[in-house]
Specification:
The chain crosses the membrane at residues 28-47. This protein is an all-alpha fold. Helix content is 79%, strand content 0%. Helix 1 (2-24) packs across helix 2 (27-47).
Length: 56
């Protein structure tokens, strides 16, 4: 299972990085954009309320 996940990650990563590289004009800008997206996603994940199960 982990080998297939590793393969998919290695296949998708260059596609995800190359798409904004051409649009933004460079690898540094593309990585900065992807980093900003990750920071926002983590921020949303940490501030999202969590449902608490009722105690019996």
């Amino acid at each position: 299972m982990w080998t297939s996940a590793l393969f998919v990650g290695q296949f998708v990563c260059p596609l995800v990085v190359l798409a904004p590289t051409g649009a933004l004009g460079g690898l540094g800008a593309a990585l900065a954009l992807l980093g900003a997206v990750v920071v926002v996603a983590v921020g949303v994940g940490l501030t999202r309320p969590v449902a608490v199960a009722a105690a019996h």
